[in-house]
Amino acid sequence: MRLQRRDLIKAAGAAGALALTGCAANMIGTPDRARVLVVGGGFGGATAAKYVRFLSGGKIDVVLVEPESAFVSCPMSNLVLGGTRLVAELTVPYSSLTQQHGVTVVKDMVASIDPVKRVAVLASGASIGYDKLVLSPGIEMMWDRVAGLKDASAQGRVLQAWKAGAETVALRRQLEAMPDGGLFAIVIPEAPYRCPPGPYERASVVAGYLKATKPKSKVLILDANEDVTSKGALFKKVWAEQYKGIVEYRPQHKATGVDGASNTVMFEVHDKVRADVLNVLAPMRAGQIAVQTGLANSNARWCGVNFLNFESTVHKHIHVIGDAIQVAPLMPKSGHMASSHAKVVAAAIVAELNGWEVNPAPMLSNTCYSFVDDKRVIHVASVHEYVAAEKTYRTVAGSGGLSPAPNELEGSYAWNWARTIWADALG
Amino acid sequence: MKTIWIPRLLLLLTACGVQAQGNDPQALRASSLAATCAQCHGTAGRALPGAVVPGLAGLPAGYLAEQMKAFKNGTRTATVMHQIAKGYSEAQIEQLASYFSAQKTEGPR
Q: Domain A143-282: what homologous superfamily?
C-alpha cells in the first residue's frame, strides 16, 4: 500500500502532538514513566539497572536517576589518600549503561516519592511514574550525634571522605600539608557503618605513606567500638609490626563533638584529642530519601526489607538495597554486597513482571580486599544463602574466610576485582 | 552419578536460550546464581582484557565443575576461591558450570 501525502501529514501531525504532550509532562529527555525506576547510581543502583536489562534480555525498560555525572568508587579510594592512585582512576561514566544496555540515565535527584501513586518527583520538578522502584540511596552521616561536626565539615576543616570524590582529594591535600611529626587521627563510629574494614585500611595506608615520607608522624585510631570490627587480628598484627611506633589503636572512644578551629575531638568518657589532620566519621543511617519516605523502620536508621526480593517492609513496590538496609547476620555494608543485593532484586523484579515465581533460594557473595600499604592486601570473603525458615540470609556453613597474611598477589587481585566489579555494574 | 547428570542435561537443554539470560524461570535462576560470580570473573563470566582472574565464559562444563570441586575439597589451593567454593552445593556447581560453558566469550560486559 502506498501512503497518500495527506496520510503522511496526518501521521506527522499525530507524532508531533505526542511529542508535545511528552514535553509538557516533563523536561526534555526525562521520561514520565518507567517500568523499573532505579534511584541512586552507586554499586547497588547501577548494578540493579544493568541487571534488570541484562536478565530481561532488554525487554524491561529501566530509568536510572543519579545526580552525579560519573560513578566514583569508594573501594580503592584509600589509595588516593596514600598517594598511589588518582580519583580519575576510580571514576566510571554512566554512558555504557545507556549505550551498551539501554538504560535511560537521568542526571537529577529524587526529591520525594509517593509510594501510593508510585511516582517519584525530581529536584528539577519532573516526575516519573513506576511499576517497581529500586532505591539504592547509600548512607548519610547523622551529624547531630557529633556536635560541631557538620559545620567543621562544611568549612573543610574536619572531613569525612566517606563518599569518594572531591572530599577524598581534599583530605589527601591535608595529609600532604601535614608536617613531619604531625598526627593523623581517624574517629570511627559504632557499627553498623558503611564499609567495616574501611577505616582500618585508611589508617594503615596513611601510615604507609607517612612512614615513607614523614617518618616522625603518627596515626591514631579512635574507635567507638569495643574492638576492631573487621579483619581485627590481621590489622593489629600489621600495626604492631609494620607500623610499630606509628599506629596507635584506642577502642571505646565514642566521639561527642569536634572543635574545627582547634582540630579537636571530644569523647563521651576519654580526654579530648587534638590532631593535625582529623578525619571524623559520624554514626550513619540510610540516605535521606529513604528516611523521608518512611522506609527506615529499624531504629529510624536502616530500612527493613523482605530478603527474597528486597521489597521494603513499609511500602510495596519499593525495593531497597545496599548500605541503607537493615542487614542480615554477618552481612557487611559493602559495595560488593550492594552489588549482590542488586542482582537478587533484579532477578526478582524480572520474575515478578513476567508473572513467574520469585527464586525461593537466592544467594549472595562478598569479597572485600583491604590494602595495608600501597601494595599488600588482606581479604575477607563470604557466601550467603537465604534460609526460608528464618526469612533471612546466613553464611553457608564452612564457607568464607580471611587471608592468612598481607600479600602482594592479592594486591593485584584487589585491583582486578575493582575493575571487574565496576564493569559488572556500569560496563 | 545419575542424580548429577540428569539435572545437568536438562540445564544444558535450557541453556540453548541462555544468551537471553531470562527467557524462562529456570534460565533466569541459572543466570541469577551465576551473577554471584560476576563481580570477580565478569558479567556472564566474561573477564576484562588483561584480567588476572580468569574468565569463565565458554569453558567446558566438566572442567569448570572439576575445578570448583577441587577448590571446595582443598585439592586445588587459592587465595580466596577455596573459601568461596565451599559456599556452593554440588548441584549449584553443576548449574554454574553449565551456565558458563554456554556463554559466549564476546558480548556485553
A: FAD/NAD(P)-binding domain (3.50.50.60)
